[in-house]
Amino acid sequence: MQINRIELPEVCLVLLMGASGAGKTTFARKHFSAGEILSSDRFRELVSGDENDMSASADAFELLHETADRRLKRMRLTVIDATNAQKRDRAALIDIAKQNDLHAAVIVLDPPEKIVMERRESRTDRGSGGVPVSAVRRQLSGVRQSVSKLRGEGFRFVHHLTTQEEIDSAEIVRTKMWNDKREEHGPFDIIGDIHGCYAELRELLCRLGYKDDPDGIPVHPDGRKAVFIGDLCDRGPENVKVLRLVMAMVRSGNALAVPGNHDVKLVKYLRRRNVQVKHGLEITAAELDRETEEFRAETADFLDSLVSHYVLDGGQLVVAHAGIKAEYIGRASSRVRKFCLYGDITGETDSDGFPVRLDWAADYSGKALVVYGHTPYEEVYRAGNTCCIDTGCVFGGSLTALRYPENETVSVPAHSKYAEPGKPMAKPSAPDSDTLAAEYFTGELHIDTQLTPGIRIRENNSAAAFEIMSRFAADPRWLIYLPPTMSPCETSGLPDYLEHPYEAFDYYKRNGVERVVCEKKHMGSRAVIVCCRSAESAAERFGVDDGSAGIIYTRTGRRFFDDRDTEAVLLGRLRTALEKSGFWDSFSTDWVCLDTELLPWSVKAEGLIREHYAPVGHAGVHSLSAAERLLHQTAARDDIADPDGSGGHDADISVLLERTSFRRRAMEDYVKAYSSYCGRVGSPEDIRIAPFHLLACEGAVFTDKPHVWHMETLRRYITDWDVIFTATPYITVNVNDPEEVGIAVQWWTELTQSGGEGMVVKPEDYIARSGGRLIQPAVKCRGREYLRIIYGPEYLAPYGLGRLKKRSLSRKRELALKELSLGIEALSRFVGHESLTRVHECVFGVLAMESEPVDPRL
Amino acid sequence: MLLTITYDGRDTQDLGYLLHKNPYKVQKYELNLGTAYVFYPEVSDTRTTAALLLDIDPTELSKGRLAAKNPGLFDYLNDRPYTSSSFLCTALNRVFGTAMSGRCDKMPELAQSQLCLTAHVYMLPCTDDSLPHDFFAPLGYSVTVEREQVSDAFPEWGKSPYIDLTISGSVRLSELLEHLYVLIPAFSRKHYYVDESEIDKMISHGGSWLSTHPARNKILYRSFMMKRDYAREALERLDEAAADTEDTGVPTDSNTAENEDSSTKHIPLNTRRYEAVRAAVLASGSASVIDLGCGEGRLTELLLREQQLKRVGAADISVSALDRAKKRFASLPEYQQSKLTLMHGSLTYTDKRFSGYDCAVCAEVIEHIDLSRLGAFEKVLFGTAAPAVVIITTPNRDYNDNYEFLSGGELRHSDHRFEWSRSEFLSWAERICSEYGYTAEISGIGDESEGLGMPSQMGVFTKCR
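YS: structure for the whole thing
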């Protein structure tokens, strides 16, 4: 039996077409998986309970169309099992494919009428409601009349199977999308618009390390591949030489190429279609006219075969001549091709007659790095996760390559100004747009981070974060990090403690961490500091141009100080320290981001203390003292009867007195506990800032450095230089060494007995794993007295502690890991010059996580 | 929580009979919310004092039964175990219920006699010193209030929000107990379990004297204050700073209006503002409008009633305000609802859903946006949504001189980030026009005050064709 190969793109919309009884459902089940098939019968059944209920067709098709659309949005092959005999029905489906920039294919099942009718007769599954003979006849003739017109209707692939043998022997072959080169991992050297500048191209390839092989084809000894992003020809001096070289490199597998608008126009010229021979085409044309017909044909075929864009390196890199919108990546339609060739053109022309282009790159928020050319800039233009490498060689600029994944550019200056640009080359603008689009921050969100892929943010959490961000947060351009929540250690096994260091050490020991760092926990407020070297560097790097040169913000992204003067003084002191210590030069940066604790607690919490803690403390001490006094007075009476033990309402005064005295003392300790964290702040001089993480600066996120490095580096460059900045005491502990553990417990005990909040225990490395899984980056271990503030004055009483010991930490710890992943991701994206949207997404995610209801005392 | 009752006179030990509690014993009563103890610190012929001590385990509160449904940090750290609140009244009713009813089989005459009685209420929540006098003096008591500093160590934290209250007078014991029972809850700032049965209790114990009490309205109003708005819980958990004052919460227009109206007469300013906006929307010839920062949807509702407006959008950033708006709209005629699209949206994030309306309204909204974020707002509204007409109203700061309750540059609402003078609004409008291609007409809303303008100012921006 002859095998009938039907090739279909991996992702497309496939219509099965044929009369009722033509065998569509059987065919579909044989070649496609159940999830891929959308059957009109099935949808009728879903909406009405009866697959033959034709009155349900409108509802059924509405759902079917919606489902097809959602699947294509997700890049899923979708098969429509319906008669599709009417042009109207097919048109609606073609529209859906087009809207999703994917091809539509049709497989017509058209066996002889006799077979169809026989099958109709023998059907038992349709009951009495089967399709009438007249309707089947109508369908059959509809199908036959349409077949020849299907291409014209917009089907890219049409397969017409006219015999039962053809149908039975058909084999579906799924072909990869042409633009899908995800398996190519590079490394790549992506080369900008050449426009016939052969000499510069040769020089650039040489700089990049390419050497000619015996055939004169440049080959890279490390197996790197060149990627040409189009506009090989026109305007420049040696177009044919460029064409020859590029074609040879692509054919030998040493290069990839995508077409530019000039290349497409050249094809039209070579195919003798109507084009205006200007804008530099006249030069290429003249050169080619001197070549052989064979070479011209070869050139036309080569350029014609190029695919609008390529998706490379597992989807992390996309190349397209004029760029590409995120929603077009990996898809194929004339709309996508046009965008890749010409960019985001509005169809309007400006006053000089040039087409008006929108800056799609400014809005780009995709995950893949898009490298493109087309618009010449004076220097490489990066906006978000995009990079334009057309630096206008032919206009006397330079020819640029982007080395990937290194993300470095290499340029060679033009040897001459070969052409005059129509208008001056654009200067890359500073990171603009302090506007973010709501659509990326509403509804359920999924955020991929390097540490934890696929973090899901539920809709109600994103809504809460949206509100907080909009109403209270600082300018989002400053928010490049939010700190994760921190779990306490497990509940202590010791009778008089809720938290004790043993459990913290034990946690890390169990997870295979040998060395931990114990840092004193300051009782202040978390503050993230971004400090720039100058207002100019702030404007340049962060795009904030109101003259500020940094910010101090809270763990919820809110400006720490309403009073901008205090903030400016503190930032100024920090800047001076960094200047004096030589930080800027040592780290080759103009900005730094620090994680700190700002003291005293009352700076931020004064309102909280006055409104909540102090009134409770005052009322508690006062009313319990009064009760105690009255009870003493009562106990001192000599006429009071002892309880006779007969039960009833009799109570023992001494027991009550003792209990009340205990409560009064607990209350006084509670007042003492919160009062010790309150200090008078008259001026910024009274403030102390304890930095404990040097998070990031230009080109680096320091989460690859151990905590001791952070402590020592912060000391060397900051806390040694200004008393406002205070070093955090710490010790390192081998959790397997009982002696060291004993010393650490002693350290904690002294710390907490002298009024300290407690300590934070961290694994030696910033990011630690156990068996491949992330483990807590830190656990806190709070002091007995401090915990009164959290759990109430009497928590240590037997009746309190027993209940509290049952607390559960798992939710808190899960959040801590996700927030850690998001925070670090935000920093990495910012340091990697990704778009504001991509950075904000992560920070937004942390805030959303924090709206999860978790016991606030943990 | 603690309360004492002292009887001065002859044979004062009889207080034990009146209270039905033996003065020679310490007695305890298990209640739902803790344990109540009754004991007598002094018993003599001339003076006898009974004490009611209610011992509430604070951790019991945190278990949820007695606390708010969504536990915030302050449900674990609250003042209720130590202060005199409605809990104390529950205990009063349970422990001294018979005495409160005036029944005393052993000494019926004494129970009906006016005695020299003094009650001492410890730590009564009260920030207004005149309240105890207003409440108790008309009932014939002499009233003494003692208030301390909230912290000895930090005098700058000010006075305590609690007082020790002493009232004494010549009354029947049952009356004293009823007075305390009804009036103590009227001092509390928060009521957690107000339901209809509370009204019954109040009528049964206060019916005879409350109806003629000069402060009757105040007492009733304070006793039946609405339950706390739980919708704010998520916000509070996220941001302690937002939680530390109640009023940084949702900016409701009613809140502003209440303040402003105290000095305007006739039609409330808010109504006039909505009327002005509505008229301007209609005059612009718009067929569709979006109310940006719709809050509870009061203006939106007015706009929905206009036949000229075929499509109405409404957006707000506050989830709780939107919930209230949703409730409001649910009762509208179906046709009006079909014209409406309600959305959770922010004015500092560009939003496709804001596009496609002829007109956008921002009534008393921009002053809730930080000045540093106003640039983003401009881009969102004038740059991206860019409707043909934009109507903006905002307070006129010049006019604040007329408000007695605002002193020293204070703003009208605690969530206002700024309030503009007329010239500041004008120069902002001029910049918007030149930057985004609009023309603007500025006017005022409300009664004009000489030299200060009108309380609200309105800009109608029209896009240049």
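YS: worth flagging: Residues 25 and 532 of chain A are 66 Å apart (CA to CA).
IM: good catch. Also The two ends of chain A are 72 Å apart (CA to CA).
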